[in-house]
């Protein structure tokens, strides 16, 4: 692979979702290597660029002044020739309930390498299915980045649920030219459990039922959670339940979302069951954070290790995409779908 020739990425490989595009965009901006991606989201029911993927592409283009072909909704092929990323103030409006967190995941690494700080405002979905909720960003993703020497101040101005969207997050990203490695071979004792139960434009009773159901499940497992129950400003009517475990060396967060016809008790049960299942393993990060972490760790100043409760298809796909841009060795110990160790060894 020659930098001048760029990288050809097949979006149908592996898990075949939007993650392939987002990782390619992020690494193209960091490395300066152009790429062409074909068969975008070929394994999805609605293939091609959807609103959040298109906004991630346009955000990347704006940040680095890239030359782009194929930047239209539904496009299955994109060519991206990056320029040099610039810090500053940016506003990205997905215009649907598309995930704000996934747009942030696309742009934060190149902005960390800029000489000046950046402020990024993203409008869309903050608590939507199939993507990290704002709770996961704050309670799982951000603490691990902070341990790598990253300074990001992340605020929720308004919650956005499916299908209305309209949520808003704002991130202040300070320069961090060097990323520290993480060595998380053990998580240490569980120090606290936080239970977050919130609703938007519903009766407080709904969030209370969610809280009580979660509290019963956690107390039944011998845990006494610290409870936060609140109402979120939003255009939508919905609920969210998040269970965060604070360990001596790490944090994990499992969330569940409401939907029409879904009882509050079931929302609470989904979040609690996922967290309690994690406790039955010796993992050090949750399975969702695992595929998000390999990208910054591939750019870190030394080797890293963590343990996940499940080696997911997303993780395998992200590792394959990273390998097209960076000379990094990422070694998995374990089998797909089972617990395993992840070793990330960047080339000096």
Blueprint (SSEs and pairs):
Elements lengths: L6 E4 L8 H13 L3 E4 L12 H14 L2 E3 L8 E4 L7 E5 L6 H13 L5 E7 L9 H14 L4 E7 L8 E7 L16 E11 L3 H17 L5 E6 L6 E10 L3 E7 L6 H16 L7 H11 L6 E5 L4 H10 L5 E6 L6 E7 L2
Parallel strand pairs: 1-2, 5-6, 9-10
Antiparallel strand pairs: 2-4, 3-4, 6-8, 7-8, 9-11, 11-12, 13-15, 14-15
General description of the model:
This protein is an alpha+beta fold and 348 residues long. The chain has three domains: 1-83, Translation Initiation Factor IF3 (2-Layer Sandwich); 86-177, RNA 3'-terminal phosphate cyclase domain (UDP-n-acetylglucosamine1-carboxyvinyl-transferase, Chain, Alpha-beta prism), CATH 3.65.10.20; 190-279, 2-Layer Sandwich (Dihydrodipicolinate Reductase, domain 2), CATH 3.30.360. It has eight helices and 15 strands. The strands form four sheets. Strands 1-2-4-3 form a four-stranded mixed β-sheet, covered by helices on one side. The chain has a four-stranded mixed β-sheet with strand order 5-6-8-7, with helices on one face. A four-stranded mixed β-sheet has the order 10-9-11-12, sandwiched between helices. Helix 4 crosses helix 7 (287-297). The mean pLDDT is 95.
């Amino acid at each position: 692979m020659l930098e001048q020739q760029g990288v050809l990425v097949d979006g149908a490989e592996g898990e075949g979702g939007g993650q392939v595009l987002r990782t390619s965009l992020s690494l193209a901006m960091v490395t300066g290597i152009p790429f062409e991606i074909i068969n975008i989201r070929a394994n999805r029911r609605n293939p091609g660029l959807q609103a959040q993927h298109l906004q991630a592409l346009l955000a990347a283009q704006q940040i680095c002044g890239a030359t782009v072909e194929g930047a239209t909704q539904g496009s299955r092929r994109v060519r991206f020739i990056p320029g040099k990323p610039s810090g500053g103030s940016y506003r990205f409006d997905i215009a649907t309930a598309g995930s704000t967190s996934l747009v942030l995941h696309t742009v934060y690494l190149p902005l960390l390498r800029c000489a000046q700080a950046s402020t990024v405002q993203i409008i869309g979905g903050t608590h939507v299915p199939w993507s990290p909720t704002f709770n996961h960003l704050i309670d799982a993703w951000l603490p691990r980045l902070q341990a790598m020497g990253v300074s990001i101040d992340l605020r929720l101005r308004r919650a956005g649920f499916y299908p209305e969207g309209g949520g808003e997050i704002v991130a202040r990203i300070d320069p961090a030219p060097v990323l520290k490695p993480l060595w998380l071979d053990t998580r240490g004792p569980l120090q606290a459990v936080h239970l977050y139960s919130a609703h938007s434009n519903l009766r407080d009773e709904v969030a209370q039922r969610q809280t009580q159901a979660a509290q019963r499940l956690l107390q039944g497992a011998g845990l006494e959670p610290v409870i936060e129950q609140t109402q979120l400003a939003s255009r939508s009517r919905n609920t969210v339940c998040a269970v965060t475990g604070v360990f001596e060396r790490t944090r994990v967060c499992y969330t569940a979302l409401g939907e029409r016809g879904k009882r509050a008790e079931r929302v609470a049960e989904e979040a609690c069951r996922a967290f309690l299942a994690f406790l039955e393993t010796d993992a050090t990060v949750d399975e969702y954070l695992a595929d998000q972490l390999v990208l910054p760790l591939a750019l870190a100043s030394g080797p890293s290790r963590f343990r996940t409760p499940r080696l997911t298809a997303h993780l395998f796909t992200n590792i394959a995409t990273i390998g097209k841009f960076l000379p990094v060795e990422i070694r998995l110990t374990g089998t797909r779908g089972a617990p395993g160790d992840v070793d990330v060894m960047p080339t000096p």
